[in-house]
Specification:
- This protein has 75 residues and is mainly beta.
- The chain is 9% helix and 35% strand.
- The protein contains 1 helix and 5 strands; from the N terminus they run E-E-H-E-E-E.
- The protein has one helix at 27-33, and strands at 9-14, 17-22, 41-45, 48-50, 65-70.
- A 5-stranded mixed β-sheet has the order 2-1-5-3-4, with no helix packed on it.
- The protein is globular and about 40 Å long.
């Protein structure tokens, strides 16, 4: 059965997988919804790396592509 898409849904691709968020969702909110800590995630939005200070100012839009990589300390 086909899923109904509401006008307020935003379609994204996150780490190669189709995803859907509510219209008006910020990148920071998405990161938190995914259970990630914003300070430990490297973010690429449509091929451009973002600074941590930029995460909260980005409102997600239809068709954007995100790569979220969790930074892991180790030795």
């Amino acid at each position: 059965a086909a899923r109904r898409r509401w006008a307020s849904d935003v379609q994204l691709v996150v780490n190669g997988r189709p995803s859907e968020v509510a219209d008006g969702t910020t990148l920071l909110a998405l990161i938190e919804q995914l259970g990630l800590r914003p300070g430990s995630v490297v973010v690429e939005l449509d091929g451009h790396a973002l600074l941590r200070s930029e995460l909260d100012g980005v409102v997600l839009r239809d068709g954007q592509r995100l790569e979220l990589v969790r930074a892991v300390a180790g030795g």
